[in-house]
Amino acid sequence: MTNKLEKGQKVLVAQQSRFGKQIDLEEKVVTKVGRIYFETEHGGKWRIGEFNPTDSRVGSYNNTKVYASLENYQQAQKATEIFNKIKRHFDVGSSNQFTYEQMAKVAEILGVDIETK
User: Fold this and answer.
1) How far apart are the first and last CA of the chain?
2) Which of 62, 68, 33, 63 is CA-nearest to residue 48?
3) Would residue 20 be called left, alpha or beta, if left means φ above 0 and alpha means ψ between -120 and 50 degrees?
4) Helix or strand or coil: residue 18?
5) Helices in 1-117 by DSSP H: which ranges?
6) H/E element holding 27?
7) What is the pTM of this model?
8) Mind listing the pLDDT tens digit for each residue in 12-51?
9) Tens of pLDDT along 69-93?
10) Domain coordinates of the chain in residue numbers?
């Protein structure tokens, strides 16, 4: 697969229900690729953004996201799950239970410069 979205390429469309309870997955074929948007069969239209087939999300519109493959979709779901688990430790109201060394490691992983204000 190339690093460019191409006409005829198959993508996975994940449409989330209004309240986020159910996600319908459907494979679609790209029918048109423009400078800003790409279209899939049956009238789907999404902003291209930065397309890289190794990234999880190809494009999105409202409650619909388009992925390069089922594997990319599953990785994105797992990443969201992990993020939500980690986020709970940093929510307002949770005490600062981390040492400086632990927070410095987190900052390093995230690429946050802790030396400048």
Assistant:
1) 43
2) 33
3) left
4) coil
5) 70-87, 100-110
6) strand 23-33
7) 0.67
8) 888 776 666 777 888 999 999 988 888 888 777 777 764 4
9) 889 889 988 998 998 888 888 777 6
10) 10-110
